[in-house]
Amino acid sequence: MIRRIRKQLKKTSGFTLIEVVIVMVILGILAVVAVPKFVDLTTNAKISATQATLGSIRSVLAVQYAKNAANGSAAFPSSLGASDFADGKTPKNALSGVSGVATVSSAPTGTATSSSAGFWYITSTGVAGAYSEGTTDTSAW
């Protein structure tokens, strides 16, 4: 009986080479399909985070305008700093990785970039936007 079991165990072996190769090919195909989708999700997440931060900048501008209007001089602030935001930090653009809000006289177009600020706003109108990382068009935000 023991001899029969030992013979049975010796007959069973691991996977054949062709089975291993087939599994590796299937995993390779799955990786080729999954990686571009992951990269696309990362870009979409950065865009969404930047748009959310832009929304908070617009809110701060509206609050500052309302404070100035209540004091008799309805105007947008001449600059925004860390103290203007609830967490005490200057906002960071998730697309470009740059923090800060710059004042401009006209809206940058398309994929404009900045190494000194992640966001911009026009002091005369209060229109605000985000700088790009160089490939994403942020002008319609």
Order of helices and strands: HHEEE
Helix count equals: 2
Terminus-to-terminus distance:
78 Å
What value does the Rg take, in angstroms?
A: 28 Å
Low-confidence parts lasting 5 or more residues at pLDDT below 50?
none
State the oligomer. single chain
Summing up helix and strand content along with how strands pair, one would put the structural category as mainly alpha
What is the topology?
Elements: H1 2-11, H2 17-70, E1 101-104, E2 119-122, E3 128-130
Parallel strand pairs: 1-2
Antiparallel strand pairs: 2-3
Structure description:
There is one protein chain. The chain is mainly alpha-helical and 141 residues long. It has one domain. The protein is 45% helix and 8% strand. The chain has 2 helices and 3 strands, in the order ααβββ. The protein has a 3-stranded mixed sheet with strand order 1-2-3, covered by helices on one side. A hairpin with a 5-residue loop joins strand 2 and strand 3. It starts with a helix and ends in an 11-residue tail after the last strand.
Question: Could you list some keywords that capture this structure?
Answer:
141 residues; 8% strand; 2 helices; three-stranded mixed beta sheet; mainly alpha
In brief, what are we looking at here?
Helices cover 45% and strands 8% of the residues. With 141 residues, the protein is mainly α.
